[in-house]
Amino acid sequence: MPEVRHRLIGDAMAWEATHILMISPELTFPADSIHRLLSRGRGIVGVNYLRNFISEEFSAYRGEGTVKPDPKSPETEEVDGCAIGMALFCMPVFEILELPYFRHDQVGDTPAFTEDHVYFWNKCKEKEIPCVIDHELSQEIKSLHHGELWH
């Protein structure tokens, strides 16, 4: 996945795009999602979706736990990171960060590796680029793998 993301970012830079929208194919979303994400006016804004319906693991996280959607939450919220299932990036973000943007890192001496977005959000944190999730749009995102069959 990191290679695909890097190629996509490189192509967007070559096209002189202002933004890039990354979407995982298993997500369903409203047709106006890109307009809603753009309206937030943030460097990076993503959505918080259910990744595992059995353990109720969501894509956004703070510390060691996931951030559960709450209808009482503000429209947007800064978190430590989120999976890149659906996220809109302003291209200048990639001018601030150095390559590689995404990478899998080994977890200690174990055979496990981190997901590529963990590396990305750590780099963003070093440069004080916040991870923002759109709670309002997140309420309408469904995953074909986990929740869509029950909606």
Write the layout of secondary structure elements.
Elements: H1 2-14, E1 19-23, E2 27-28, H2 33-39, E3 44-46, E4 50-52, E5 57-58, E6 60-62, E7 65-66, E8 76-79, E9 81-82, E10 86-90, H3 92-96, H4 116-126, E11 131-134, H5 135-138, E12 142-143
Parallel strand pairs: 3-11
Antiparallel strand pairs: 1-10, 2-12, 3-10, 4-5, 6-7, 6-9, 8-11
Quick description:
With 151 residues, the chain is of the alpha+beta class.
Q: Can you offer a commentary on this structure?
A:
- This protein has one domain (2-150): Alpha-Beta Complex (Spore Coat Polysaccharide Biosynthesis Protein SpsA, Chain A), CATH 3.90.550.40.
- The chain has 5 helices and 12 strands.
- The protein has helices at 2-14, 33-39, 92-96, 116-126, 135-138, and strands at 19-23, 27-28, 44-46, 50-52, 57-58, 60-62, 65-66, 76-79, 81-82, 86-90, 131-134, 142-143.
- The strands form 4 sheets. The chain has a 5-stranded mixed β-sheet with strand order 1-10-3-11-8, sandwiched between helices. Strands 7-6-9 form a 3-stranded antiparallel β-sheet. Strands 2-12 form a two-stranded antiparallel sheet.
- Strand 4 (50-52) and strand 5 (57-58) form a beta hairpin.
- The longest helix has 13 residues, at 2-14.
- The protein starts with a helix and ends in an 8-residue tail after the last strand.
- The mean pLDDT is 89.
